[in-house]
Amino acid sequence: MATSSSSQTFPVQLADPVTQEQPWIRWTLTLLALSFLSLFLLLPLMGVFFEALKKGWDVYIDAITEPDALAAIRLTLTAAAIAIPLNLVFGIAAAWAIAKFEFYGKSILISLIDLPFSVSPVVTGLIYVLIFGLQGWAGPWLKEHDLAVIFAVPGIVLATIFVTVPFIARELIPLMQAQGTEEEEAAIALGANGWQTLWYVTLPNIKWGLLYGTILCNARAMGEFGAVSVVSGHIRGLTNTLSLHVEILYNEYNFVAAFAVASLLALLALLTLALKTLVEAKVAQQIRGNHS
Prior knowledge:
By secondary structure, the chain is mainly α. 76% of the residues lie in helices and 0% in strands. The longest helix is centred in the last third of the chain and has 37 residues, at 255-291.
């Protein structure tokens, strides 16, 4: 009796990937995330604008255009206008050195760049007081030459520079490392000098990452509170930045004016977020182009 064998193919049930959760799990996680964002981000932001405009546009405009507020805006813009270009130059130089070369002390340089992330801004301000204050290490010499750093604009600028140092360098270092050195080596082999290589090869390749780091640096510079609070002296119309002016108005129970000025910082944060999103898309596009 002959028997015949036939091969049959049975479907194999594969386990669902871990990313394919049940719909109720996805909806629950999404709802939790949206609730968190609404409670801790959207509601406070809406509250700032509601309180700022509670008494009408006239009161709002008066609050942000009175002399002390305008002086705070000018000082904030001045500190940012000085800190950002200096950090721009330092960030490019530091990232270039770290990403393109091997040298003794490289890890120390990286640690120093990250130092403002680990040191409290208040401690930073106290360090500057210790160095440049009247009783500080350089205080007698500064007083002898009629130079003021602490409780003056230079101290605010120094504090702003310190807290914003890492943003540009830390954004450029991994980008430059991912790009490698082949294009720079080719440019040098073709006769380009160091400046030509930097200007025509390196900078075009990092332009979006550079812009991204600059946006973050600007946002931190304009919103910094702790370090500048220590070194400013809180002199109205002279050494108050926007964040310090908000604190003074709030402590004086001038809540509408405080929220009006705070709304300027909130608008800056929203603008920064929009620019950040656009630049992130450009950076992702550039990285995909480099890998293709």
